[in-house]
Amino acid sequence: MNRLLSTLFRAAPGGAALSVLASLASGAGAAIMAIVISRALEAESRSLALAVAFFTAAAVHFSLRVLSEVWLIRLAQKVLLDLRLTLARRLLATPQIRLQEIGRQPLLTILTRDMDSFVGAVQLVPLLIGNLLLILGCFGYLAWVDWQICAAVFACLLVGASLFKLAERRPIARIFRLREEIDQLYIRQRALIEGAKELQLNSPRGAHYIDRVIGPAAAGVARSYVGAMSAYIWVVNIGNSLFYLVIGVVLFLMPGLTGRDMLPAVLLMLYLVRPVSEVMISLPALRQSAVALERIEQLSADLDPAATLPPPMPVQDHIALRGVTHSYARDSEDGVFTLGPIDLTLRRGEVVFLVGGNGSGKTTLAMLLCGLYHPEGGGIAVDGQPVTEATLASYRQAFSAVFADFHLFEQLPGSDDPGMEAKARSLIADLRMAHKVTVRNGCLSTTDLSTGQRKRLALVSAYLEDRPVYLFDEWAADQDPVFKAVFYTELLPELKARGKAVLVITHDDAYFGCADRVVKLADGRIVTDAEGA
Ligand SMILES: Nc1ncnc2c1ncn2[C@@H]1O[C@H](COP(=O)(O)OP(=O)(O)OP(=O)(O)O)[C@@H](O)[C@H]1O
């Protein structure tokens, strides 16, 4: 709970302090109720003072508990909102290579499941704090009524708590393992959803995927969950029964006490059964949230701190890559792929085609050119000025790209520009898409379209960005022959005429004549850089 509380206090000290105080006061109210019940049972006659104390304590207990729970839910949602936005900003500030290393699914799991687990545990905080104070209050009163019984009960509980701490080690380790297995299961379930078409076309393969890939991962999660939670159920219930054991010891084994002497103490202990078991039952959820918080904090530390939005770097004349190299940390089948050293110049008003076989390094070079990968060796210069670590984010803003694995956002860029929608409608009409899609409130009316159609809309977004450098990775590959011709013979010359620098990754050798230069890559090296023909 310490971790949870410190996160809440860091995020909103005032709100967290108020919630904790309300929880404490609510717990104190419950403790006073217990004491009043015990006093009333001991008293010879009914007392008005005790009645007033009882109903006041009850009102304080219930109203402050509701208040603290509501405050904490609000606080948790505020913390969650800040966390979500901070992580989203950090994610965009983090280099692509690092994001690829972390992996899409772990990122998604942290941003969804772990966040929910954190919020779920925050809601337990008032219950826990209130109950802990109630337990303390009742003990204080017990000590005042009969210190011997209190000492005996306290000793038993101390032994119980130490045993609990020891017994909890295994379930905690299992909760950590469970979290890792959930990551693996989600990766496989995601592949099931994304590859459903292929698996539906091949039933034996689908059955094999479920039985041999999803099955073992799901069974592993189920095993670890049952292992962790049943160990907890044992530990929690043994902890609870310890309470009854203590009552038994006090009732039957403590010498020199009559039943009447023991009545207040036994009553208090019975009263404490519920809060103690509530505290115990919350522990697994708290442990899970601690694991979730660790993941969230780890991710936050792995991502780069969000920087202020950089303005686009102006490109007056050209971009030059000199001796640029890059290699992937993970080996592919044929060893570590190394691109470069690459020397390449891209001028404004020039259309360059980048060609080469599959795996020759075209996309990797494009990622380096637009600053999404940092060059390991060599450097990039804009109009003779080197691009540094500090200016890389600004350099990236000079590019507009449609990647082969592009994502089509519903929201169009430039929503602050009042003329954006009109521009978008005109571009959509130019790209022969007006019969399929409209623009409303800065958004496309649909993105449920064919791949070629969605690529045309991605081009609309790229045009709206109106950057000095354009990059298309096999854009025309999904277009019909008519529109392919429009792309090479109308759209690219238009961009050239507007002074844009354009890099087109393509396999369409029939259109190589549309390029000012054709740069050919093989095994990560430029083998030819010649005028288009
Ligand atoms: N994320 C990655 N992790 C590790 N290695 C990678 C990764 N992406 C690419 N590679 C390696 O880099 C090499 C070049 O890949 P790249 O995507 O740049 O080729 P390409 O020329 O664009 O291929 P294609 O024409 O098939 O799109 C590949 O052979 C592969 O071994």
Low-confidence stretches: none
The number of helical runs is: 16
Q: What's the rounded overall pLDDT mean?
A: 85
* Net shape: elongated
What's the structural domain tally?
Answer: 2
Strand content: 5-15%
Could you tell me the CATH topology label of the largest domain: ABC transporter transmembrane region fold
Bound molecules: adenosine-5'-triphosphate
How would a textbook summarize the main sheet?
6 strands, mixed
Write the layout of secondary structure elements.
Elements: H1 2-11, H2 13-42, H3 48-93, H4 96-102, H5 104-122, H6 125-145, H7 147-167, H8 169-194, H9 196-201, H10 203-253, H11 259-302, E1 318-327, E2 338-347, E3 351-356, H12 362-369, E4 377-382, E5 385-386, H13 392-396, E6 399-402, H14 420-430, E7 439-440, E8 443-444, H15 451-465, E9 469-473, H16 481-497, E10 501-505, E11 517-522, E12 525-531
Parallel strand pairs: 3-10, 3-11, 6-9, 9-10
Antiparallel strand pairs: 1-2, 1-4, 4-5, 7-8, 11-12
This protein binds adenosine-5'-triphosphate.
The site of adenosine-5'-triphosphate has 13 residues, from helix 12.
Plain-language structure description:
The protein is an alpha/beta fold. It has two domains: 2-302, ABC transporter transmembrane region fold; 318-531, Rossmann fold. 63% of the residues lie in helices and 12% in strands. It is built from 16 helices and twelve strands. The protein has helices spanning 2-11, 13-42, 48-93, 96-102, 104-122, 125-145, 147-167, 169-194, 196-201, 203-253, 259-302, 362-369, 392-396, 420-430, 451-465, 481-497, and strands at 318-327, 338-347, 351-356, 377-382, 385-386, 399-402, 439-440, 443-444, 469-473, 501-505, 517-522, 525-531. The strands form three sheets. A six-stranded mixed beta sheet has the order 6-9-10-3-11-12, with helices on both faces. Strands 2-1-4-5 form a four-stranded antiparallel beta sheet. Strands 7-8 form a two-stranded antiparallel ribbon. Helix 2 (13-42) packs parallel to helix 6 and helix 7 (147-167) runs antiparallel to helix 10. The longest helix is centred in the middle third of the chain and has 51 residues, at 203-253. The protein is elongated and about 110 Å long. The model has no long low-confidence stretch (mean pLDDT 85). Adenosine-5'-triphosphate binds at residues 100, 328, 330, 332, 337, 356, 358-364. The site of adenosine-5'-triphosphate (ATP) has 13 residues, from helix 12.
